[in-house]
Amino acid sequence: MNNIENNYHHNIDHRKVIQDAIVRQSYKRKIVNRVFTGVTIVCVMLAMIPLGSILFEVVKNGISAISIEFLTQPQGSIIRGGGGVGPAIQGTLLTVGYASLIGVPIGILAGVYLSEYAGNSKFAYTVRFFNSVMTGMPSIVIGIVGYIILVITIGSFNITAGAVALSIIMIPIVVAVTEETLKLVPNSIREAAHSLGIPKWKVTLFITLRSAKNGVLTGIVLAVSRVAGETAPLIMTILGTSLFFQGFVSPVDALPLRIWRFASQPYEHAHSFGWGAALVLIIMVLSLSILLRFLVLEKSFRLGSLVKTRG
Amino acid sequence: MIGAAGYTLFMLVLVAASVIEGSMPIFSFEGIGFFFGTDWNPVEGREAYGALPYVVGTLVSSAIAMAIGVPISLGIAVFISEISPPRFGTPIGFIIEILAAIPSIIYGLWALFVFRFWIVDFIERPLYEAFGGTIPLFARTPFGLDIFTAGIVLAIMIIPIISSISREILKAIPNSQREAAYSLGATRWETVWKVLFPYAKAGLLGAAILGLGRAVGETMLVTMVIGNAVGANAIPDTLFSPSQTLSSIIANEFNEAVTVFHSSALIALGAVLFILTMGINVGARLLVSRMVKVTPGAKE
Protein backbone atom coordinates (compact mmCIF):
# COMPACT_ATOMS: atom_id res chain seq x y z
CA MET A 1 0.00 0.00 0.00
CA ASN A 2 2.69 2.35 1.09
CA ASN A 3 4.74 1.44 -1.95
CA ILE A 4 1.96 2.27 -4.36
CA GLU A 5 1.46 5.65 -2.74
CA ASN A 6 5.12 6.43 -3.20
CA ASN A 7 4.93 5.54 -6.83
CA TYR A 8 1.87 7.68 -7.19
CA HIS A 9 3.62 10.66 -5.69
CA HIS A 10 6.59 10.01 -7.85
CA ASN A 11 4.45 10.15 -11.00
CA ILE A 12 2.81 13.35 -9.90
CA ASP A 13 6.17 15.07 -9.38
CA HIS A 14 7.73 13.82 -12.57
CA ARG A 15 7.59 17.11 -14.45
CA LYS A 16 8.89 19.04 -11.48
CA VAL A 17 11.75 16.58 -11.06
CA ILE A 18 12.83 17.14 -14.66
CA GLN A 19 12.51 20.89 -14.31
CA ASP A 20 14.62 20.81 -11.16
CA ALA A 21 17.18 18.70 -12.96
CA ILE A 22 17.34 21.16 -15.84
CA VAL A 23 17.74 24.10 -13.49
CA ARG A 24 20.40 22.27 -11.56
CA GLN A 25 22.08 21.23 -14.76
CA SER A 26 22.13 24.71 -16.28
CA TYR A 27 23.37 26.06 -12.94
CA LYS A 28 26.17 23.53 -13.06
CA ARG A 29 26.97 24.43 -16.68
CA LYS A 30 27.16 28.10 -15.78
CA ILE A 31 29.51 27.34 -12.90
CA VAL A 32 31.72 25.21 -15.15
CA ASN A 33 31.79 28.04 -17.67
CA ARG A 34 32.80 30.56 -15.00
CA VAL A 35 35.52 28.28 -13.66
CA PHE A 36 36.83 27.76 -17.20
CA THR A 37 37.00 31.52 -17.86
CA GLY A 38 38.81 31.97 -14.56
CA VAL A 39 41.29 29.22 -15.41
CA THR A 40 42.22 30.85 -18.73
CA ILE A 41 42.81 34.16 -16.94
CA VAL A 42 45.06 32.37 -14.44
CA CYS A 43 46.98 30.88 -17.39
CA VAL A 44 47.62 34.34 -18.80
CA MET A 45 48.78 35.59 -15.40
CA LEU A 46 51.08 32.60 -14.93
CA ALA A 47 52.78 33.49 -18.20
CA MET A 48 53.17 37.14 -17.16
CA ILE A 49 54.94 36.39 -13.87
CA PRO A 50 58.20 35.11 -15.42
CA LEU A 51 58.36 38.00 -17.87
CA GLY A 52 57.87 40.55 -15.11
CA SER A 53 60.38 38.83 -12.86
CA ILE A 54 63.02 38.42 -15.59
CA LEU A 55 62.84 42.08 -16.64
CA PHE A 56 62.83 43.23 -13.01
CA GLU A 57 65.81 41.10 -11.95
CA VAL A 58 67.88 41.88 -15.04
CA VAL A 59 67.38 45.62 -14.62
CA LYS A 60 67.80 45.56 -10.83
CA ASN A 61 70.97 43.45 -10.81
CA GLY A 62 72.37 44.66 -14.10
CA ILE A 63 72.11 48.41 -13.73
CA SER A 64 74.78 48.60 -11.01
CA ALA A 65 77.31 46.84 -13.23
CA ILE A 66 76.87 49.21 -16.16
CA SER A 67 79.50 51.92 -16.59
CA ILE A 68 81.61 53.32 -19.43
CA GLU A 69 84.41 50.99 -18.37
CA PHE A 70 82.04 48.00 -18.38
CA LEU A 71 80.87 48.74 -21.92
CA THR A 72 84.28 49.39 -23.46
CA GLN A 73 87.04 47.57 -21.55
CA PRO A 74 88.13 43.93 -21.77
CA GLN A 75 87.63 41.72 -18.75
CA GLY A 76 89.94 42.30 -15.77
CA SER A 77 91.23 39.72 -13.31
CA ILE A 78 88.94 36.72 -12.92
CA ILE A 79 89.41 36.63 -9.17
CA ARG A 80 89.37 40.32 -8.33
CA GLY A 81 86.99 41.49 -11.04
CA GLY A 82 87.14 44.82 -12.81
CA GLY A 83 87.20 45.61 -16.51
CA GLY A 84 84.16 45.00 -18.66
CA VAL A 85 82.54 43.23 -21.56
CA GLY A 86 83.80 45.41 -24.43
CA PRO A 87 85.08 42.45 -26.50
CA ALA A 88 81.79 40.62 -26.01
CA ILE A 89 79.73 43.57 -27.28
CA GLN A 90 82.08 44.03 -30.22
CA GLY A 91 82.07 40.29 -30.91
CA THR A 92 78.28 40.03 -30.88
CA LEU A 93 77.94 42.98 -33.28
CA LEU A 94 80.63 41.60 -35.61
CA THR A 95 79.43 38.00 -35.62
CA VAL A 96 75.77 38.90 -36.08
CA GLY A 97 76.64 41.46 -38.77
CA TYR A 98 78.81 38.93 -40.59
CA ALA A 99 76.05 36.30 -40.33
CA SER A 100 73.55 38.80 -41.75
CA LEU A 101 75.84 39.51 -44.70
CA ILE A 102 75.71 35.81 -45.55
CA GLY A 103 72.16 35.01 -44.53
CA VAL A 104 70.06 38.00 -45.60
CA PRO A 105 70.81 37.99 -49.37
CA ILE A 106 70.38 34.22 -49.63
CA GLY A 107 67.20 34.33 -47.57
CA ILE A 108 65.63 37.13 -49.60
CA LEU A 109 66.57 35.58 -52.94
CA ALA A 110 65.14 32.23 -51.92
CA GLY A 111 61.96 33.89 -50.60
CA VAL A 112 61.50 35.88 -53.83
CA TYR A 113 62.06 32.74 -55.86
CA LEU A 114 59.45 30.80 -53.91
CA SER A 115 56.84 33.53 -54.13
CA GLU A 116 57.39 34.97 -57.64
CA TYR A 117 58.99 32.27 -59.74
CA ALA A 118 58.51 28.79 -58.34
CA GLY A 119 54.73 28.59 -58.20
CA ASN A 120 53.55 25.25 -56.92
CA SER A 121 56.28 23.08 -58.37
CA LYS A 122 57.45 20.02 -56.50
CA PHE A 123 60.83 21.67 -55.93
CA ALA A 124 59.18 24.72 -54.36
CA TYR A 125 57.06 22.51 -52.13
CA THR A 126 60.15 20.61 -50.98
CA VAL A 127 62.09 23.79 -50.29
CA ARG A 128 59.18 25.26 -48.34
CA PHE A 129 58.71 22.14 -46.29
CA PHE A 130 62.32 21.59 -45.35
CA ASN A 131 62.78 25.30 -44.79
CA SER A 132 60.10 25.17 -42.10
CA VAL A 133 61.70 22.03 -40.68
CA MET A 134 65.01 23.91 -40.49
CA THR A 135 63.41 26.62 -38.33
CA GLY A 136 63.01 23.95 -35.65
CA MET A 137 66.54 22.58 -35.85
CA PRO A 138 68.30 22.84 -32.45
CA SER A 139 70.96 25.51 -32.61
CA ILE A 140 73.56 23.29 -30.96
CA VAL A 141 73.30 20.84 -33.86
CA ILE A 142 73.87 23.75 -36.24
CA GLY A 143 76.94 24.65 -34.19
CA ILE A 144 78.35 21.20 -35.01
CA VAL A 145 78.17 22.14 -38.71
CA GLY A 146 80.30 25.22 -38.13
CA TYR A 147 82.75 23.16 -36.09
CA ILE A 148 83.14 20.33 -38.62
CA ILE A 149 83.26 22.50 -41.75
CA LEU A 150 85.16 25.56 -40.64
CA VAL A 151 86.85 25.04 -37.28
CA ILE A 152 88.49 21.70 -38.04
CA THR A 153 89.56 22.72 -41.56
CA ILE A 154 90.94 26.10 -40.48
CA GLY A 155 92.48 24.61 -37.37
CA SER A 156 91.25 27.21 -34.88
CA PHE A 157 88.00 28.57 -33.51
CA ASN A 158 87.07 31.55 -35.67
CA ILE A 159 84.42 34.16 -36.43
CA THR A 160 83.57 32.76 -39.89
CA ALA A 161 82.48 29.45 -38.40
CA GLY A 162 80.23 31.34 -35.98
CA ALA A 163 78.80 33.55 -38.70
CA VAL A 164 78.06 30.60 -40.99
CA ALA A 165 76.35 28.72 -38.15
CA LEU A 166 74.24 31.78 -37.24
CA SER A 167 73.37 32.35 -40.91
CA ILE A 168 71.96 28.80 -41.08
CA ILE A 169 69.63 29.80 -38.24
CA MET A 170 68.70 33.10 -39.95
CA ILE A 171 68.01 31.92 -43.50
CA PRO A 172 64.86 29.86 -42.86
CA ILE A 173 63.29 32.77 -40.96
CA VAL A 174 64.11 35.32 -43.68
CA VAL A 175 62.89 32.96 -46.43
CA ALA A 176 59.57 32.28 -44.74
CA VAL A 177 58.77 35.90 -43.88
CA THR A 178 59.87 37.22 -47.31
CA GLU A 179 57.70 34.69 -49.12
CA GLU A 180 54.67 35.37 -46.93
CA THR A 181 54.94 39.15 -47.36
CA LEU A 182 55.42 39.00 -51.12
CA LYS A 183 52.30 36.88 -51.35
CA LEU A 184 50.35 39.68 -49.68
CA VAL A 185 51.15 42.08 -52.51
CA PRO A 186 48.01 42.16 -54.69
CA ASN A 187 48.41 40.54 -58.09
CA SER A 188 46.82 43.53 -59.82
CA ILE A 189 49.99 45.52 -59.12
CA ARG A 190 52.15 42.92 -60.86
CA GLU A 191 49.68 42.68 -63.73
CA ALA A 192 49.60 46.44 -64.20
CA ALA A 193 53.40 46.52 -64.37
CA HIS A 194 53.56 43.61 -66.78
CA SER A 195 50.94 45.22 -69.01
CA LEU A 196 53.28 48.19 -69.38
CA GLY A 197 55.86 45.82 -70.84
CA ILE A 198 58.27 45.97 -67.89
CA PRO A 199 60.48 42.87 -67.75
CA LYS A 200 59.79 40.48 -64.90
CA TRP A 201 63.03 41.05 -63.00
CA LYS A 202 62.36 44.79 -62.92
CA VAL A 203 58.79 44.24 -61.75
CA THR A 204 60.01 41.96 -58.98
CA LEU A 205 62.85 44.18 -57.87
CA PHE A 206 61.37 47.68 -58.20
CA ILE A 207 57.65 47.08 -57.70
CA THR A 208 56.83 43.86 -55.84
CA LEU A 209 59.80 43.90 -53.47
CA ARG A 210 59.50 47.62 -52.91
CA SER A 211 55.87 47.45 -51.89
CA ALA A 212 56.72 44.57 -49.54
CA LYS A 213 59.78 46.38 -48.15
CA ASN A 214 58.58 46.57 -44.57
CA GLY A 215 57.62 42.93 -44.45
CA VAL A 216 61.02 41.87 -45.71
CA LEU A 217 62.66 44.15 -43.14
CA THR A 218 60.50 42.50 -40.49
CA GLY A 219 61.93 39.13 -41.44
CA ILE A 220 65.48 40.45 -41.22
CA VAL A 221 64.92 42.06 -37.82
CA LEU A 222 63.24 38.91 -36.53
CA ALA A 223 66.16 36.78 -37.67
CA VAL A 224 68.76 39.16 -36.26
CA SER A 225 67.07 39.35 -32.86
CA ARG A 226 66.82 35.57 -32.79
CA VAL A 227 70.52 34.94 -33.46
CA ALA A 228 71.80 37.80 -31.31
CA GLY A 229 70.87 35.78 -28.22
CA GLU A 230 72.13 32.42 -29.48
CA THR A 231 74.74 30.81 -27.29
CA ALA A 232 74.99 27.12 -28.05
CA PRO A 233 76.36 27.29 -31.62
CA LEU A 234 78.95 29.86 -30.52
CA ILE A 235 80.49 27.50 -27.97
CA MET A 236 81.70 25.26 -30.77
CA THR A 237 82.54 27.95 -33.31
CA ILE A 238 83.85 31.24 -31.89
CA LEU A 239 84.71 29.83 -28.43
CA GLY A 240 84.90 33.16 -26.59
CA THR A 241 87.97 35.11 -25.47
CA SER A 242 88.80 38.06 -23.30
CA LEU A 243 90.45 39.89 -26.21
CA PHE A 244 89.05 42.25 -28.81
CA PHE A 245 88.73 41.10 -32.43
CA GLN A 246 92.07 39.60 -33.50
CA GLY A 247 91.36 38.64 -37.11
CA PHE A 248 89.31 36.17 -39.03
CA VAL A 249 91.09 33.02 -37.84
CA SER A 250 91.12 33.52 -34.09
CA PRO A 251 88.40 33.21 -31.45
CA VAL A 252 86.05 36.13 -30.76
CA ASP A 253 83.77 36.82 -27.82
CA ALA A 254 79.99 37.28 -27.64
CA LEU A 255 77.60 38.56 -24.98
CA PRO A 256 75.62 35.32 -24.52
CA LEU A 257 78.83 33.34 -24.16
CA ARG A 258 80.16 35.84 -21.66
CA ILE A 259 76.94 35.65 -19.61
CA TRP A 260 77.29 31.88 -19.46
CA ARG A 261 80.93 32.00 -18.37
CA PHE A 262 80.21 34.65 -15.73
CA ALA A 263 77.31 32.64 -14.36
CA SER A 264 79.45 29.52 -13.97
CA GLN A 265 82.09 31.31 -11.91
CA PRO A 266 81.83 31.21 -8.13
CA TYR A 267 82.52 34.94 -7.60
CA GLU A 268 79.94 37.53 -6.63
CA HIS A 269 81.40 40.18 -8.96
CA ALA A 270 81.27 37.73 -11.88
CA HIS A 271 77.55 37.22 -11.26
CA SER A 272 77.06 40.95 -11.16
CA PHE A 273 78.87 41.22 -14.52
CA GLY A 274 76.67 38.44 -15.85
CA TRP A 275 73.56 40.45 -14.99
CA GLY A 276 75.12 43.56 -16.54
CA ALA A 277 75.87 41.70 -19.76
CA ALA A 278 72.33 40.29 -19.71
CA LEU A 279 70.95 43.84 -19.42
CA VAL A 280 72.98 44.96 -22.44
CA LEU A 281 71.84 41.92 -24.44
CA ILE A 282 68.19 42.28 -23.47
CA ILE A 283 68.21 45.97 -24.43
CA MET A 284 69.68 45.06 -27.83
CA VAL A 285 67.18 42.28 -28.47
CA LEU A 286 64.06 43.95 -27.11
CA SER A 287 64.70 47.22 -28.92
CA LEU A 288 64.88 45.15 -32.11
CA SER A 289 61.55 43.51 -31.22
CA ILE A 290 59.90 46.82 -30.56
CA LEU A 291 61.25 48.18 -33.84
CA LEU A 292 59.76 45.07 -35.40
CA ARG A 293 56.40 45.83 -33.86
CA PHE A 294 56.35 49.26 -35.49
CA LEU A 295 57.35 47.81 -38.84
CA VAL A 296 54.52 45.29 -38.61
CA LEU A 297 51.97 47.93 -37.63
CA GLU A 298 53.02 50.16 -40.49
CA LYS A 299 53.02 47.23 -42.88
CA SER A 300 49.47 46.16 -42.14
CA PHE A 301 48.37 49.77 -42.47
CA ARG A 302 50.04 50.18 -45.85
CA LEU A 303 48.92 46.85 -47.18
CA GLY A 304 45.42 47.68 -45.98
CA SER A 305 45.42 50.92 -47.93
CA LEU A 306 46.77 49.09 -50.99
CA VAL A 307 43.93 46.63 -50.86
CA LYS A 308 41.41 49.42 -50.38
CA THR A 309 42.52 51.39 -53.45
CA ARG A 310 42.19 48.14 -55.32
CA GLY A 311 38.54 47.65 -54.80
CA MET B 1 67.74 32.57 -57.25
CA ILE B 2 67.20 28.87 -57.72
CA GLY B 3 70.66 28.56 -56.26
CA ALA B 4 69.55 30.41 -53.12
CA ALA B 5 66.47 28.22 -52.81
CA GLY B 6 68.62 25.19 -53.42
CA TYR B 7 70.99 26.36 -50.69
CA THR B 8 68.19 26.28 -48.12
CA LEU B 9 67.76 22.60 -48.99
CA PHE B 10 71.50 22.14 -49.03
CA MET B 11 71.74 23.45 -45.43
CA LEU B 12 69.80 20.45 -44.22
CA VAL B 13 72.12 18.12 -46.12
CA LEU B 14 75.04 20.04 -44.65
CA VAL B 15 73.76 19.51 -41.10
CA ALA B 16 73.12 15.82 -41.69
CA ALA B 17 76.49 15.26 -43.37
CA SER B 18 78.37 17.11 -40.62
CA VAL B 19 76.87 15.18 -37.73
CA ILE B 20 77.38 11.86 -39.53
CA GLU B 21 80.94 12.70 -40.50
CA GLY B 22 81.76 13.88 -36.98
CA SER B 23 80.29 10.86 -35.24
CA MET B 24 82.00 8.21 -37.39
CA PRO B 25 84.96 7.59 -35.00
CA ILE B 26 82.75 6.81 -32.01
CA PHE B 27 80.57 4.37 -33.96
CA SER B 28 83.63 2.49 -35.10
CA PHE B 29 84.73 2.42 -31.43
CA GLU B 30 81.49 1.66 -29.58
CA GLY B 31 79.39 0.26 -32.42
CA ILE B 32 75.63 0.20 -32.08
CA GLY B 33 76.07 -0.22 -28.32
CA PHE B 34 76.63 3.54 -28.14
CA PHE B 35 72.86 4.04 -28.19
CA PHE B 36 72.21 1.69 -25.26
CA GLY B 37 75.29 2.23 -23.10
CA THR B 38 75.02 4.13 -19.80
CA ASP B 39 78.73 4.66 -19.02
CA TRP B 40 80.44 7.94 -19.70
CA ASN B 41 84.17 8.02 -19.10
CA PRO B 42 86.39 10.38 -21.11
CA VAL B 43 89.65 9.39 -19.37
CA GLU B 44 92.07 8.20 -22.01
CA GLY B 45 92.66 4.45 -21.91
CA ARG B 46 89.42 3.75 -20.03
CA GLU B 47 87.07 5.45 -22.42
CA ALA B 48 83.44 4.38 -22.55
CA TYR B 49 80.54 6.33 -24.02
CA GLY B 50 76.82 5.62 -23.95
CA ALA B 51 73.95 7.85 -25.05
CA LEU B 52 71.06 6.29 -23.16
CA PRO B 53 71.05 8.45 -19.97
CA TYR B 54 70.95 11.67 -21.98
CA VAL B 55 68.15 10.43 -24.22
CA VAL B 56 66.20 9.60 -21.06
CA GLY B 57 67.02 12.98 -19.51
CA THR B 58 65.93 14.78 -22.68
CA LEU B 59 62.65 12.88 -22.90
CA VAL B 60 61.79 13.26 -19.21
CA SER B 61 62.54 16.99 -19.00
CA SER B 62 60.59 17.62 -22.21
CA ALA B 63 57.68 15.54 -20.93
CA ILE B 64 57.55 17.64 -17.75
CA ALA B 65 57.68 20.81 -19.87
CA MET B 66 54.85 19.59 -22.08
CA ALA B 67 52.67 18.49 -19.15
CA ILE B 68 52.91 21.99 -17.66
CA GLY B 69 53.28 24.10 -20.78
CA VAL B 70 50.59 22.75 -23.09
CA PRO B 71 47.53 23.31 -20.84
CA ILE B 72 48.71 26.82 -19.92
CA SER B 73 49.39 27.66 -23.58
CA LEU B 74 45.95 26.45 -24.63
CA GLY B 75 44.40 28.51 -21.83
CA ILE B 76 46.21 31.61 -23.08
CA ALA B 77 45.27 30.94 -26.70
CA VAL B 78 41.61 30.46 -25.77
CA PHE B 79 41.61 33.59 -23.63
CA ILE B 80 43.05 35.74 -26.41
CA SER B 81 41.02 34.37 -29.28
CA GLU B 82 37.69 33.48 -27.63
CA ILE B 83 37.21 35.36 -24.38
CA SER B 84 38.91 38.72 -24.17
CA PRO B 85 37.94 41.70 -26.30
CA PRO B 86 40.70 42.68 -28.80
CA ARG B 87 41.76 45.67 -26.71
CA PHE B 88 43.07 43.26 -24.05
CA GLY B 89 43.92 40.39 -26.36
CA THR B 90 46.28 42.35 -28.60
CA PRO B 91 48.53 43.70 -25.82
CA ILE B 92 48.57 40.30 -24.09
CA GLY B 93 49.63 38.71 -27.36
CA PHE B 94 52.37 41.33 -27.67
CA ILE B 95 53.63 40.69 -24.15
CA ILE B 96 53.73 36.94 -24.79
CA GLU B 97 55.73 37.63 -27.95
CA ILE B 98 58.27 39.60 -25.91
CA LEU B 99 58.61 36.50 -23.74
CA ALA B 100 59.50 34.63 -26.92
CA ALA B 101 62.12 37.24 -27.87
CA ILE B 102 64.12 36.94 -24.65
CA PRO B 103 67.27 34.87 -25.34
CA SER B 104 67.35 31.51 -23.61
CA ILE B 105 70.65 32.36 -21.90
CA ILE B 106 68.80 35.08 -19.97
CA TYR B 107 66.10 32.61 -18.95
CA GLY B 108 68.95 30.43 -17.76
CA LEU B 109 70.58 33.21 -15.74
CA TRP B 110 67.24 34.09 -14.14
CA ALA B 111 66.42 30.46 -13.46
CA LEU B 112 69.83 29.82 -11.89
CA PHE B 113 69.91 32.84 -9.58
CA VAL B 114 66.23 33.59 -8.92
CA PHE B 115 63.60 31.14 -10.07
CA ARG B 116 65.19 27.96 -8.76
CA PHE B 117 64.86 29.18 -5.18
CA TRP B 118 61.16 29.83 -5.74
CA ILE B 119 60.75 26.31 -7.01
CA VAL B 120 62.59 24.81 -4.05
CA ASP B 121 60.70 26.89 -1.49
CA PHE B 122 57.19 26.81 -2.93
CA ILE B 123 56.95 23.52 -4.80
CA GLU B 124 59.73 21.03 -4.20
CA ARG B 125 60.23 21.23 -0.45
CA PRO B 126 56.51 21.11 0.39
CA LEU B 127 56.13 18.10 -1.93
CA TYR B 128 59.17 16.45 -0.40
CA GLU B 129 57.97 17.02 3.15
CA ALA B 130 54.47 15.78 2.38
CA PHE B 131 55.19 12.78 0.17
CA GLY B 132 58.96 12.20 0.36
CA GLY B 133 58.53 9.18 2.63
CA THR B 134 55.73 7.52 0.72
CA ILE B 135 56.04 8.31 -3.00
CA PRO B 136 59.42 7.41 -4.55
CA LEU B 137 58.99 10.18 -7.15
CA PHE B 138 59.60 12.83 -4.46
CA ALA B 139 62.07 10.92 -2.28
CA ARG B 140 65.12 13.14 -2.50
CA THR B 141 66.13 16.33 -0.70
CA PRO B 142 65.54 19.05 -3.29
CA PHE B 143 68.22 21.61 -4.19
CA GLY B 144 66.59 23.15 -7.24
CA LEU B 145 69.23 22.05 -9.72
CA ASP B 146 67.29 19.08 -11.02
CA ILE B 147 65.15 17.73 -13.80
CA PHE B 148 61.95 19.16 -12.32
CA THR B 149 63.30 22.73 -12.35
CA ALA B 150 64.59 22.22 -15.90
CA GLY B 151 61.15 20.98 -16.97
CA ILE B 152 59.36 23.98 -15.47
CA VAL B 153 61.71 26.54 -17.00
CA LEU B 154 61.44 24.74 -20.35
CA ALA B 155 57.65 25.01 -19.99
CA ILE B 156 57.96 28.78 -19.52
CA MET B 157 60.11 28.89 -22.66
CA ILE B 158 57.76 26.93 -24.90
CA ILE B 159 54.55 28.67 -23.77
CA PRO B 160 54.97 31.61 -26.19
CA ILE B 161 55.47 29.42 -29.26
CA ILE B 162 52.64 26.99 -28.48
CA SER B 163 50.19 29.69 -27.45
CA SER B 164 50.83 31.93 -30.47
CA ILE B 165 50.43 29.09 -32.98
CA SER B 166 47.32 27.75 -31.19
CA ARG B 167 45.86 31.24 -31.21
CA GLU B 168 46.33 31.49 -34.98
CA ILE B 169 44.74 28.08 -35.41
CA LEU B 170 41.74 28.96 -33.24
CA LYS B 171 41.31 32.21 -35.18
CA ALA B 172 41.30 30.22 -38.44
CA ILE B 173 38.22 28.25 -37.38
CA PRO B 174 35.22 29.58 -39.34
CA ASN B 175 32.78 31.58 -37.23
CA SER B 176 29.88 29.44 -38.41
CA GLN B 177 31.17 26.71 -36.07
CA ARG B 178 30.91 29.01 -33.06
CA GLU B 179 27.55 30.42 -34.11
CA ALA B 180 26.11 26.93 -34.55
CA ALA B 181 27.26 25.93 -31.06
CA TYR B 182 25.96 29.10 -29.39
CA SER B 183 22.63 28.86 -31.20
CA LEU B 184 22.15 25.41 -29.66
CA GLY B 185 22.55 27.04 -26.26
CA ALA B 186 26.09 25.86 -25.57
CA THR B 187 28.11 27.84 -23.05
CA ARG B 188 31.49 29.23 -24.01
CA TRP B 189 33.25 26.35 -22.29
CA GLU B 190 31.13 23.81 -24.18
CA THR B 191 31.78 25.62 -27.45
CA VAL B 192 35.53 25.59 -26.89
CA TRP B 193 35.75 22.06 -25.52
CA LYS B 194 33.21 20.23 -27.69
CA VAL B 195 33.31 22.22 -30.94
CA LEU B 196 36.49 24.25 -31.41
CA PHE B 197 39.05 21.83 -29.93
CA PRO B 198 37.81 18.81 -31.89
CA TYR B 199 37.66 20.93 -35.05
CA ALA B 200 41.23 22.17 -34.62
CA LYS B 201 42.61 18.94 -33.13
CA ALA B 202 45.28 18.30 -35.76
CA GLY B 203 46.56 21.89 -35.77
CA LEU B 204 46.68 22.16 -31.97
CA LEU B 205 48.52 18.86 -31.77
CA GLY B 206 50.97 20.19 -34.34
CA ALA B 207 51.49 23.36 -32.28
CA ALA B 208 52.20 21.28 -29.19
CA ILE B 209 54.68 19.10 -31.09
CA LEU B 210 56.48 22.19 -32.40
CA GLY B 211 56.84 23.25 -28.77
CA LEU B 212 58.15 19.77 -27.98
CA GLY B 213 60.77 20.16 -30.71
CA ARG B 214 61.87 23.42 -29.08
CA ALA B 215 62.05 21.81 -25.64
CA VAL B 216 64.04 18.82 -26.86
CA GLY B 217 66.64 21.01 -28.58
CA GLU B 218 66.94 23.76 -25.97
CA THR B 219 70.46 23.97 -24.63
CA MET B 220 71.66 26.83 -22.45
CA LEU B 221 68.74 27.07 -20.11
CA VAL B 222 68.81 23.34 -19.40
CA THR B 223 72.57 23.33 -18.97
CA MET B 224 72.28 25.97 -16.26
CA VAL B 225 69.63 24.30 -14.10
CA ILE B 226 69.56 20.54 -14.68
CA GLY B 227 72.45 19.73 -12.34
CA ASN B 228 74.67 18.15 -15.00
CA ALA B 229 74.98 14.58 -13.80
CA VAL B 230 77.08 12.27 -15.96
CA GLY B 231 76.77 8.61 -16.98
CA ALA B 232 74.31 6.30 -15.23
CA ASN B 233 73.71 9.01 -12.58
CA ALA B 234 72.06 11.11 -15.25
CA ILE B 235 69.09 8.72 -15.39
CA PRO B 236 66.76 10.44 -12.93
CA ASP B 237 65.36 8.16 -10.23
CA THR B 238 63.21 10.89 -8.66
CA LEU B 239 61.74 14.17 -9.90
CA PHE B 240 64.31 16.04 -7.81
CA SER B 241 67.40 14.27 -9.18
CA PRO B 242 70.01 16.06 -11.24
CA SER B 243 70.13 14.82 -14.81
CA GLN B 244 71.55 15.76 -18.21
CA THR B 245 70.13 16.16 -21.70
CA LEU B 246 71.66 15.49 -25.11
CA SER B 247 72.20 19.18 -25.75
CA SER B 248 73.36 20.12 -22.26
CA ILE B 249 76.18 17.57 -22.15
CA ILE B 250 77.41 18.79 -25.54
CA ALA B 251 77.48 22.37 -24.28
CA ASN B 252 79.16 21.35 -21.02
CA GLU B 253 81.91 19.13 -22.34
CA PHE B 254 82.57 20.25 -25.89
CA ASN B 255 85.39 22.64 -25.05
CA GLU B 256 86.98 20.15 -22.65
CA ALA B 257 86.98 17.24 -25.09
CA VAL B 258 90.61 16.48 -25.92
CA THR B 259 90.48 12.93 -27.24
CA VAL B 260 89.06 12.10 -30.68
CA PHE B 261 86.52 9.72 -29.17
CA HIS B 262 85.26 12.21 -26.61
CA SER B 263 84.46 14.96 -29.11
CA SER B 264 83.16 12.40 -31.57
CA ALA B 265 80.87 10.96 -28.87
CA LEU B 266 79.50 14.47 -28.22
CA ILE B 267 78.89 14.99 -31.93
CA ALA B 268 77.17 11.61 -32.07
CA LEU B 269 74.86 12.82 -29.29
CA GLY B 270 74.19 15.76 -31.63
CA ALA B 271 73.32 13.22 -34.34
CA VAL B 272 70.83 11.54 -32.01
CA LEU B 273 69.34 14.95 -31.21
CA PHE B 274 69.20 15.75 -34.94
CA ILE B 275 67.24 12.58 -35.69
CA LEU B 276 64.92 13.14 -32.73
CA THR B 277 64.07 16.75 -33.64
CA MET B 278 63.81 15.99 -37.37
CA GLY B 279 61.19 13.36 -36.62
CA ILE B 280 59.31 15.69 -34.27
CA ASN B 281 59.41 18.67 -36.64
CA VAL B 282 58.46 16.80 -39.79
CA GLY B 283 55.48 15.30 -37.95
CA ALA B 284 54.41 18.66 -36.55
CA ARG B 285 54.74 20.48 -39.88
CA LEU B 286 52.66 17.88 -41.64
CA LEU B 287 49.93 18.24 -38.99
CA VAL B 288 49.97 22.05 -39.00
CA SER B 289 50.03 22.39 -42.78
CA ARG B 290 47.11 19.99 -43.10
CA MET B 291 45.14 22.23 -40.75
CA VAL B 292 46.23 25.54 -42.21
CA LYS B 293 45.55 24.42 -45.79
CA VAL B 294 41.87 24.25 -44.90
CA THR B 295 41.80 27.79 -43.57
CA PRO B 296 42.03 30.23 -46.50
CA GLY B 297 38.78 29.08 -48.08
CA ALA B 298 37.02 28.48 -44.81
CA LYS B 299 37.87 31.83 -43.23
CA GLU B 300 35.04 34.33 -43.24
Rg estimate of chain B, integer Å: 22 Å
Helix-strand topology string of chain B: HEEHHHHHHHHHH
CATH level 4 superfamily of chain B: MetI-like
Q: In whole angstroms, how far apart are the ends of chain B?
A: 36 Å
Look at the structure and give the mean pLDDT of chain B: 89
Largest sheet of chain A: 2 strands, antiparallel
Give an overview of the whole structure:
With 311 residues, chain A is mainly α. In chain A, 80% of the residues lie in helices and 2% in strands. In chain A, strands 1-2 form a two-stranded antiparallel ribbon. In chain A, helix 7 (159-184) runs antiparallel to helix 10 (213-228) and helix 12 runs antiparallel to helix 13 (268-310). The radius of gyration of chain A is 29 Å and the shape is flat. Chain B is mainly alpha-helical and 300 residues long. Chain B has a single domain, classed as MetI-like (MetI-like fold). Helices cover 74% and strands 1% of the residues of chain B. Chain B has helices spanning 2-30, 52-83, 86-101, 104-131, 147-171, 175-183, 188-199, 201-217, 220-225, 246-253, 260-298; strands spanning 40-41, 48-49. Chain B has a two-stranded antiparallel ribbon. The radius of gyration of chain B is 22 Å and the shape is globular. Mean pLDDT of chain B is 89; it is low at 294-300. Chains A and B meet through helix 2, helix 4, helix 5, helix 6 and helix 7 of A and helix 1, helix 2, helix 3, helix 4 and helix 5 of B.
